Amino acid sequence: MNWKPILGLSLMALFTMVGCKSQEGKLKFTTPEAGERVVLGKQVKLSLNFPVATIDSVVYSVDGLPLATKKDTSSVVFDSTKYGLGDKSLSAKVYAQGKEDIAYSNVMILPPNPKQYAYEVVNVFPHDSTAYTQGLQFVDGILYEGTGNPSHLPDIVTSLRKVDLTTGKILQKVEPKENFFGEGITVIGDKIVFLTWTEGEGYFYDKKSMNRVGTFKYGNSKEGWGLTYDGQRLIKSDGTNSLYFLDPHSGSELGSVRVYDENGPVIELNELEYIDGKVYANVYGQEIIVIINPESGAVEGRINLVGLNTEGRSEVDNEMNGIAYDHAAKRLFLTGKLWPRLYEIKLVER
């Protein structure tokens, strides 16, 4: 009789039994799986593998805040709409037989798929091809533009300017004496707000004279990228997936929201424009504008702008980076760094 196969089967059975017991004896989440992606609004079921049949209690928490306390091993449910977008840490602390144990998991709550848009070109206007555009706004028939000065292009300077839309002619311009890289701008009443990239501060300018009249320091947001105004707050980007809300008079930070689409965090948010309750944001290095709900951080729309500007466009330093909106006539304008043209476009929902 051959004992080797029987011995082998016995050992396999033993290992299987031990393995099962070790799994049965471990407190862990069975649902949701760690890292699971959840669409905002979904009810998420929290279930555990308990090491013992009888427990005293179990306390479930989301991001450290108690969700529910149970006296049995039944599952609980949490409503994702109450917790907002992003990573959520889950924990369950079990009390049994005079001891306590804890299990962890996590989910990422994401918005549903955004609306998709293409575009139609309505008008084309001339644009200064030496303007390294970082900020753009249309107010009372005038384009306001902020530009930067990349170190590898010594002839390109930081400037704040007023521009005639139809002709592209510069009506008024200031070039700050400091050697800072200019970034996003926005207009608030009789003031223009102008960001620096890495200096950790922004500036207030008088809209009429274009003289500097104030300075403010950045807070948790260390860099300046894009800037817009919603009528109550400045909204600032810094190249991350966060939008920061600032006091429009002092520039002090009031709060922030993180931006997500159906795939996860949307990073490198750049030039901004506030249009009908939403923030339109260039995504740096891409021919895309995302339409963001500034209260939730959800990307609700995505505009594909591939092919908008090809003729006369330089091979480098040519990112799309200028969004302006004529609120009175409902016109949307786009341009980019060193672009020789500015485009009025119409969105076409796919």
Structure summarized in a few sentences:
The chain is mostly beta strands and 350 residues long.
Description:
The chain is mainly beta. Helix content is 6%, strand content 52%. The chain has an 8-stranded mixed sheet, with no helix packed on it. It has a 5-stranded mixed sheet with strand order 2-8-7-4-5, with no helix packed on it. Strands 10-11-12-13 form a 4-stranded antiparallel sheet, with no helix packed on it. A hairpin with a 6-residue loop joins β20 and β21 (253-258). The protein is elongated, with a radius of gyration of 27 Å. The N and C termini lie far apart (74 Å). The relative contact order is 0.13.
Report low-confidence residues grouped into runs of 5 or more: 1-23
Helix content class: under 10%
Mean pLDDT: 91
Task: Please work out how many helical segments DSSP would assign.
Answer: 1
Features:
about 350 residues; mainly beta; eight-stranded mixed beta sheet; five-stranded mixed beta sheet; about 50% strand; disordered N terminus
